[in-house]
Specification:
The complex is a heterodimer.
Chain A lengths: L7 E16 L5 E17 L3 E5 L6 H8 L7 E6 L2 E2 L5 H8 L2 E4 L13 H11 L5 H14 L16 H13 L5 E5 L7 H18 L2 E6 L2 H7 L2 E6 L2 E7 H6 L4 H9 L5 H6 L30 H5 L4 E5 L2 E4 L3 H4 L1
Parallel strand pairs in A: 3-8, 3-9, 6-7, 7-8
Antiparallel strand pairs in A: 1-2, 1-4, 4-5, 9-10, 10-12, 11-12
Helix pairs in contact in A: 3-4, 3-5, 4-5, 5-6
Chain B lengths: L2 E14 L2 E14 L3 E5 L6 H8 L8 E10 L2 E2 L5 H7 L4 E4 L13 H12 L4 H14 L5 H4 L9 H13 L5 E5 L7 H18 L2 E6 L2 H5 L4 E6 L2 E7 H6 L4 H8 L50 E4 L2 E3 L3 E2 L4 E2 L2
Parallel strand pairs in B: 3-8, 3-9, 6-7, 7-8
Antiparallel strand pairs in B: 1-2, 1-4, 4-5, 9-10, 10-12, 11-12, 13-14
Chain lengths: ~325, ~325
């Protein structure tokens, strides 16, 4: 029964994040807003991996950061175990943060070069006053071994490590507080191909061992297919399609998902030869002034008049398969 | 078909404070008229240095081409005077770089920059050059190209800038186009646009292409022949279909198996290659992949294998037959 009624760990409701654009020197006037995330809703079930894919600038990282309240949302709610994070602040919020951690994209920028590895991994323990010095050292050593590094590395500095090893340090830091939810913000896109597989395998092993829940943000659709249970596709601040991995890759409904999937090159010349690509024309419009109605309509190969006028509804067209598109009925 | 470019035993080194880095350790390859060659490898394996050496774009010092030759239309590019090679670069062999954000001059208009090779190599005046540039920009799909000649690079999006870059590289009708990870900085849908564009231009203009990438997917639909590079050596070269159907070198095998595919549901663990790529502070006497290899044998630590023909037109530098797991005779 757990399969059908999975426990919801995180519920995101109508999340909106606009960044103001300001002009002026002393008296700054707000002259517009970047609509980074616009009315996004989804659930993350306990123990699953939800993949969040989209092109650069579509708002996927902003979504991740807004969930953790690293950015305060413009409106909307984020419920973690039915507690609204948006309503919390100060100490209360800090306590909740123990349960939610983040792994960042760039392992070169996300580790302080002046801190030793031990200090980096141990810092969360210190901040939350969960360990004394000796306990911290033991925990750091344990964490380093957990992510496949030697426990003796804790006195070294980040520059002594390769990209893949640094990302392991980032993973160890995220694990330090025994979180339930880890938001992985493109954790492998800065790494070489042969190293990517190492880090993904590590994330999968840790998930099994500690029953972690992941929000896996990425632009690599192949890797997302490998790691996710369900996948959400984002375009210009909105989620256009959300479905189980099987449904999304076997039966993509939204024209953007279809185009995105057909754009991914497949490492097999025989398949590539026969493939027919849906090549989208043009670029992603600016999020400062997103198109009216459906945001994808400017590049959509099947757009009609209605797409210009009405914002498409977020509908469940098949069990657990959600799409925001006016023309889906016609496609089925 | 005739060889357009024949590179043999190319060796390039860099002198650094920590010692000499052996970036390219004696590589050879041929490029035929109209052929598309893919060079695949991870960062730091020497793929960019290889083509930069051929075009003599290696900063010297610290870099130095130590040995080898690169015969283009009967002449050795590596022995030419600076003046001679300048006539070839941008005119007969041109290059598209990875990052369209940093490879343009931000203070010159697009028109000036794309016209520059025409003014230098073909002695055109500004007006003639601008006509040709407009034609070229149309060809690569820049809308309202005539109006955009006076725009600056920052006024173009990443994908558009890469289109302009391609126009600039093809404006003198080169016979070889070298593309150094031209789509790595772009999103997948834009990458698809650029790849389709290059294929189209290749059919129209018939130039040969050397495409450098770390993405085995991109090259599968594009190249005729693929060279896999590791630690400054070519470790496997084969026609594209043969390479993907029967990868023979343990590194190529590992790379292909470590890639999840968007079109399949195999949910087993990804095969990963343990360890790290080598830092080439000394020229290895053994196989550079040996420390990470699962097929490794005694001999791999004693002798560095050279490329050997393992099946027709398929060359592998490995002492072990990965099909049987036994040492090659």
């Amino acid at each position: 029964m757990k399969e059908q009624n999975p426990e919801v760990l995180l519920r995101v409701e109508n999340l909106v994040k606009h960044f103001p654009i300001k002009q002026g020197i002393i008296l700054m006037k707000t002259i517009g807003a970047v609509h980074a995330v616009d009315d996004v809703s989804f659930n993350i079930h306990k123990g699953e991996t939800l993949g969040l894919v989209g092109e650069s600038g579509c708002g996927k990282s902003t979504t991740g950061r807004t969930i953790l309240q690293l950015y305060r949302p413009t409106s909307g709610h984020v419920y973690y175990n039915d507690q609204d994070l948006v309503a919390m602040k100060g100490e209360e919020l800090r306590k909740m943060r123990r349960k939610m951690q983040m792994i960042f994209q760039d392992p070169y920028a996300s580790l302080n070069p002046r801190m030793t590895v031990g200090e980096i991994i141990g810092e969360p323990l210190m901040i939350h006053k969960l360990a004394n010095r000796r306990q911290m050292e033991e925990r750091v050593e344990h964490l380093l071994e957990l992510v496949g590094l030697s426990g003796k590395f804790s006195n070294r500095f980040p520059h002594e490590f390769s990209g893949g090893q640094r990302q392991r340090i980032g993973v160890a830091r995220a694990l330090a507080l025994n979180p339930d939810l880890i938001i992985c913000d493109e954790p492998i896109s800065a790494l070489d191909v042969s190293i990517q597989a190492q880090v993904v395998n590590l994330l999968e092993d840790l998930q099994k061992e500690f029953e972690l829940t992941y929000l896996f943000i990425a632009h690599d659709l192949s890797m997302v297919r490998h790691i996710s249970d369900r996948v959400a596709v984002m375009y210009l601040g909105i989620i256009v399609e959300l479905a189980s991995r099987y449904d999304l890759y076997h039966d993509p409904l939204h024209p953007y998902t279809q185009a995105l999937l057909s754009a991914v090159p497949i490492p097999d010349p025989l398949v590539e030869e026969k493939r027919k690509r849906v090549v989208l024309v043009g670029d992603v419009p600016t999020p400062v002034n997103p198109p009216s109605g459906c945001r994808f309509r400017t590049r959509c190969p099947i757009a009609e008049e209605i797409c210009k006028e009405l914002k498409p509804e977020w509908r469940e067209v098949k069990p657990d398969h959600f799409v925001a598109c006016h023309l889906i009925k016609e496609i089925i | 078909m005739a060889d357009l470019l024949k590179v043999s035993d190319l060796e390039t080194q860099f002198r650094t404070r920590e010692g000499v880095v052996h970036a390219v350790n004696g590589v050879s390859f041929d490029l035929k008229e109209g052929e598309t060659l893919g060079i695949v490898g991870e960062s730091g394996c020497g793929k960019s240095v290889t083509v930069m050496s051929v075009l003599r774009l290696i900063p010297t010092p610290p870099g130095k081409i130590v040995a080898g030759e690169a015969i283009f239309r009967g002449k050795d590019l590596l022995k030419m005077s600076d003046e001679e090679i300048r006539h070839i670069r941008g005119a007969q062999i041109s290059m598209v770089f990875q990052d369209p954000m940093t490879s343009f001059n931000p203070v010159l208009t697009i028109g000036r920059q794309v016209a520059e090779p025409l003014e230098i190599h073909q002695g055109m005046n500004r007006r003639q050059a601008y006509d040709r540039v407009t034609e070229m920009l149309d060809l690569v799909g820049i809308p309202k190209s005539r109006d955009r000649l006076n725009d600056y690079p920052h006024q173009f999006s990443g994908g558009m800038r890469q289109r302009v870059m391609i126009a600039m590289s093809l404006v003198c009708n080169p016979s070889i186009l070298i593309a150094d990870e031209p789509t790595t900085a772009l999103d997948v849908t834009i990458q698809a646009q650029i790849i389709e564009l290059i294929k189209e231009l290749r059919d129209k203009l018939g130039m040969a292409i050397i495409w450098i990438t770390h993405d085995l997917g991109v090259i599968a639909g594009l190249a005729d022949r693929v060279l896999v590079m590791y630690g400054g050596y070519f470790i496997e070269t084969a026609p594209v279909k043969s390479l993907y159907a029967t990868p023979t070198h343990p590194y190529t095998l590992g790379l292909i198996n470590s890639l999840p595919r968007v079109d399949s549901d195999v949910q087993c663990r990804l095969e990963s290659i343990d360890g790290l790529p080598p830092i080439l502070m000394e020229k290895p006497n053994n196989c550079p992949f040996a420390p990470r290899c699962t097929y490794v044998k005694e001999r791999c630590y004693q002798e560095n294998p050279m490329l050997m023909e393992t099946s027709e037109d398929h060359f592998t530098a490995c002492w072990v037959d990965t099909l049987t797991g036994k040492e090659r005779a």
